[in-house]
Design brief:
Layout (H helix, E strand, L loop, with lengths): L2 H14 L7 H4 L5 E2 L5 E2 L11 H10 L13 H14 L4 H9 L4 H4 L4 H4 L3 H19 L5 H23 L21 H15 L2
Length: about 210
């Protein structure tokens, strides 16, 4: 989708949602976000050359899991690190471990949308998957296979079980999953999480 068609599409979505109070020119002012490294990135038309792992690590270390509805701050970056460590503990390939580290990287640009809301946003899910495919292609060489997606979702769901239990005292309606790492929900500085994320990335990225 080119820039002009994208703007028309956004305007159309606003019209059918009942929001008629906008100027089309306003949308040309928000075509990109300025990232931590100072680059300009359009998450709706992602270009690999404007993706930087430093931006991803920094942003994810500052975004809270659960849209902030937790007892103590726990970042998306920490969650991704846990997923990567669990994948390694299960004996998965370096590619899959790195994919686990990157599986929420789109949220560095699209934010973290809670699952109950996300399922009602098909356009968001399409944009998210497109952005993830660009991220995976840049850092893994190709998008994930269905089997790789399945394994990552399994780990993601297993981590969610413990996130809900620890951060919200909310048990899940499923048996406790078996995990192979020691989980810690100690509040950490974003700098510490950012540094560990980058260290793991540089170990795995080949």
């Amino acid at each position: 989708m080119d820039k002009e068609n994208k703007v028309d599409f956004i305007c159309f979505c606003y019209i059918i949602s009942g929001n008629n109070y906008f100027r089309q020119d306003d949308f040309y002012m928000t075509d990109y976000i300025t990232t931590y490294t100072g680059d300009h990135f359009d998450p709706t038309l992602p270009e690999a050359e404007h993706l930087h792992i430093e931006d991803i690590a920094h942003a994810l270390s500052l975004i809270c899991r659960g849209n902030g509805h937790v007892k103590a701050f726990f970042s998306v970056g920490s969650h991704c690190i846990n997923c990567a460590k669990e994948a390694a503990a299960r004996g998965y390939s370096d590619r899959l471990v790195l994919a686990c580290l990157l599986h929420d990287a789109s949220e560095a640009y699209l934010s973290d949308v809670p699952r109950p809301f996300k399922k009602h946003l098909p356009a968001y899910k399409d944009l998210e998957q497109n952005l993830l495919n660009v991220i995976y292609t840049k850092y893994l060489g190709s998008p994930l296979t269905e089997e790789e997606e399945r394994r990552i979702k399994c780990i993601d769901d297993d981590m969610l079980y413990f996130d809900l239990l620890t951060l919200l005292n909310e048990p899940s309606n499923r048996p406790e999953p078996e995990i192979h790492i020691n989980l810690s929900y100690e509040v950490r500085s974003f700098e510490n999480v950012e540094q560990e994320y980058l260290q793991l990335f540089h170990i795995l990225y080949k």
